[in-house]
Amino acid sequence: MPRRSTAPAAPDSFEEIDRAVHEPARIWLMANLMVLDEADFTYLQNETGMTRGNLGSHMAKLQTAGYVTVEKTYREQTPRTVFALTDTGRSAVIRWRDQMAGIVAMLSGS
Amino acid sequence: MTLMKTSTMEQKMWSRVFDDGLWDLYLWAVFFNVAIYMLGGELDWSVAQTVIPFFVVLLGAHQLLMAAKRRITAPRIGYFKPHKKRRTEIGAVGAISVVVSILMLATTILAVTGTFSGDISLTLVLFGVLALKMVVLFSLAAHFLGVTRFYVYAALGAAGMVGGEIAVATADVARGWDVIAMFGAPAIVMLPTGLVLLSRFLKAYPKAEDAGPETEDAA
What we know:
The complex is a heterodimer.
Chain A: H1 24-34, E1 36-40, H2 41-48, H3 52-64, E2 68-75, E3 78-85, H4 87-107
Antiparallel strand pairs in A: 1-3, 2-3
Chain B: H1 6-15, H2 22-42, H3 47-77, E1 80-82, H4 84-112, H5 122-145, H6 149-170, H7 177-204
Helix pairs in contact in B: 2-3, 2-7, 4-5, 5-6, 6-7
C-alpha cells in the first residue's frame, strides 16, 4: 500500500467518509485485493471466512461503487468469478486510510 | 478476520501456495531420485537401472505436481494473481536459477573440452554446483516467499554435503556418498513434512465450487 506523503487530515464531517469502504468486511476484502492483481471468489472466501452470500453481496456493493471489476470465466468446466480492484477502488482505500489516520490523530490531540 | 499489515497479508497469501505440501513431495521425489541414482552408481547398477528411471521419475514427478496443483490445490484455495512486484521477485529467483544452470553448463563444457582438469570427477563438480544451486534457491525461496521450512532444507542439504565430504576425507567412505548424503538428508525430512502438510491442507480446505447466489444482505 502506498505510503502517505502528507500529514493525515481528518474529514470535515462524517458524511465525507465513504460508506462503501467504511465497513469492516468490505475494507477487509479491499485490503486483500490491494496486495494482489486479481483473485477469485474461492480465494477471497478462504481469506475472509465469509459465507458465499455475504461475500457476493459485499462484492456487488463494491462493484456498484466502481471499486472492483468482476469477470466470470470457466476453468476446466468449473465457473470462476475473478475480482480485481480498480484504480478508483485503490484510491478509495488510500483516502479512507488517511481519513481514519486523521481522525485518530485528531482524537489523540496530535 | 485477523488484522495484519498489508505486507504480512501479502506474504501469507503467497506462502499459502506451499501449504498443501505438494512442493515438498515433489522435491522429495526429485531428491530421493538423485540419491538413488548416485547409489546405483556406487553399487554398479546398469544404465537401464539408473539413468532411465532417473529421467522417468524426474519428468513424471513434475507432471504429477502440475496435475495435483490443478486438481487438489486450485479448487480448494482458489485462484489469485500476485502483484507485479511479487512477480518480479519470483522472476529474479528464476533468473538466478538460470545463471546457476549456465554455470553448470559452462563447467561441463570446460570439463569435456579438457580445459578443466583435476582429481575431482565431472559428476562431482556438477553435483557440487547443483548443491550450490539448491542452497541458494531454497534460501531465496524461503526469504521471498516466507516459506521458512525451505531454510531447513537448504541447511540439511549443506550439512549432508559437508558431512559426506568429512566422511570421505576421514573414513573409508567412497566418493559419491557425499552426494547421496546431500540429497538424502533433506529428502528424509521432505517426505513426512509433505504428507503431514497435505493431510492438514485437505482437512482445512474442503473442495469449493465457485461463486454462489448473492442471498445474504451486506451490512
